[in-house]
């Protein structure tokens, strides 16, 4: 059975929990206590030298990075409706959107989120926060155009993008950025998908 090294507060771990639930793949959770810095010590550093969760264990095979784990499982199992199409340009566009999700939303979003959560306000790097907000605003413009005429981001069906975004759109109001209506409706749709709702408790 698969084992997933994870932490219940980690959004990157939640992506993989959502995915495993969505695909009905049985697995065991191995909790890594980030709050006790268990991830920075052995034996966890032998599991992932970067000291980060999630990590999937499949027999002797270890794999870190949420996106890589989901791609591995998609390739390993032949699902009736796979996230990645056989058509090369469809796959290329999906890869483009995945990259943009990481670099134009999750990364700048984490800058704002972690600063607000863990840094005293007088120490906030206001320029960095403003720049992150602008990047997310531009990203929302792109998503809005897609979602005005589609229910989901890629080929109009729930897929890997929704799994990757889900934990990062849960507390979207924390970004203090105007959310276009089509994005807010998509967000509600994603958060009410049963495998998402089960993990995020939405
Ligand atoms: N790019 C990685 C990011 C993983 C990551 O940043 N995990 C965080 C928890 S959400 C972590 O383990 N942080 C512990 C640390 O950096 O000490 C992924 O997609 O899995």
Record the SSE blueprint.
Blueprint: E1 2-6, H1 11-22, E2 27-31, H2 44-47, E3 55-58, E4 61-64, H3 66-76, H4 88-118, H5 126-147, H6 160-169, H7 181-192, H8 194-200
Parallel strand pairs: 1-2
Antiparallel strand pairs: 1-3, 3-4
Helix pairs in contact: 1-3, 1-6, 1-8, 4-5, 4-6, 5-7
The structure holds glutathione.
Question: Could you list some keywords that capture this structure?
Answer:
Glutaredoxin; 202 residues; Glutathione S-transferase Yfyf (Class Pi), Chain A, domain 2; four-stranded mixed beta sheet; 2 domains; single chain; alpha+beta; binds glutathione
Concise account of the structure shown:
InterPro entries: Glutathione-S-Trfase_C_sf, Glutathione_S-Trfase, Glutathione_S-Trfase_N, Thioredoxin-like_sf. With 202 residues, the protein is an alpha+beta fold.
Question: How would you explain this protein's 3D organization?
Answer:
By secondary structure, the chain is of the alpha+beta class. The protein folds into two domains: 2-76, Glutaredoxin; 88-200, Glutathione S-transferase Yfyf (Class Pi), Chain A, domain 2. Helix content is 54%, strand content 9%. It has eight helices and four strands. It has helices spanning 11-22, 44-47, 66-76, 88-118, 126-147, 160-169, 181-192, 194-200, and strands at 2-6, 27-31, 55-58, 61-64. A four-stranded mixed β-sheet has the order 2-1-3-4, with helices on one face. Strand 3 (55-58) and strand 4 (61-64) form a beta hairpin. Helix 1 (11-22) packs antiparallel against helix 8 (194-200). The chain is globular, with a radius of gyration of 17 Å. The model has no long low-confidence stretch (mean pLDDT 96). Glutathione (GSH) binds next to helix 1 and helix 3. InterPro entries: Glutathione-S-Trfase_C_sf (IPR036282), Glutathione_S-Trfase (IPR040079), Glutathione_S-Trfase_N (IPR004045), Thioredoxin-like_sf (IPR036249). Belongs to the GST superfamily.
């Amino acid at each position: 059975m698969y084992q997933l090294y994870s932490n219940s507060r980690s959004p990157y771990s939640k992506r993989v929990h959502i995915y495993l639930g969505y695909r009905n793949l049985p697995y065991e959770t191995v909790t890594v206590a980030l709050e006790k810095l268990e991830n920075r010590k052995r034996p966890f550093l032998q599991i992932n030298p970067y000291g980060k969760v999630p990590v999937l264990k499949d027999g002797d095979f270890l794999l870190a990075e949420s996106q890589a784990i989901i791609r591995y499982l998609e390739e390993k199992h032949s699902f009736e409706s796979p996230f990645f199409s056989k058509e090369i340009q469809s796959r290329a566009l999906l890869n483009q959107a995945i990259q943009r999700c990481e670099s134009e939303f999750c990364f700048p979003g984490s800058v704002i989120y972690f600063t607000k959560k863990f840094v005293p306000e007088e120490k906030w790097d206001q320029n960095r926060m403003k720049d992150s907000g602008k990047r997310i605003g531009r990203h929302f413009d792109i998503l809005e155009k897609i979602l005005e005429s589609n229910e989901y981001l890629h080929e109009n069906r729930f897929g890997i993008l929704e799994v990757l975004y889900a934990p990062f759109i849960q507390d979207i109001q924390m970004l203090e950025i105007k959310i276009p209506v089509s994005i807010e409706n998509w967000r509600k749709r994603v958060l009410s998908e049963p495998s998402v709702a089960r993990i995020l408790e939405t």
